[in-house]
Design brief:
With 64 residues, the protein is of the alpha+beta class. The protein has a single domain, classed as Alpha-Beta Plaits (2-Layer Sandwich). The protein contains two helices and four strands. A two-stranded antiparallel sheet has the order 1-4. It has a two-stranded antiparallel ribbon with strand order 2-3. It is globular, with a radius of gyration of 11 Å. The relative contact order is 0.35. Bound molecules: iron/sulfur cluster. The site of iron/sulfur cluster (SF4) has 14 residues, from helix 1.
Length: 64
């Protein structure tokens, strides 16, 4: 199953991923870092755009 991960140690809280795909990502406003709101059932264009737009490469796709 394909799953995505978001490394909060890398995240700089730029708010880009929730803007690109608000169904999948949201900001954790207590620490001002993004987190996964809901695992996507497939890697949609919106998910891909968010991954590509992240300036620090914090979002990755895990294949297993
Ligand atoms: S795009 Fe990357 S750095 Fe920006 S909020 Fe999302 S995970 Fe964090």
């Amino acid at each position: 199953m394909t799953k995505i991960s978001l490394d909060q140690n890398k995240c700089i809280g730029c708010n880009t991923c929730p803007l690109m795909d608000p169904e999948t990502f949201e900001m954790d406003t207590t620490i001002y870092k993004a987190k996964i709101k809901k695992q996507p059932t497939e890697i949609t264009d919106a998910v891909k755009s968010a991954i590509e737009a992240c300036p620090v490469g914090a979002i990755t796709i895990d294949e297993n």
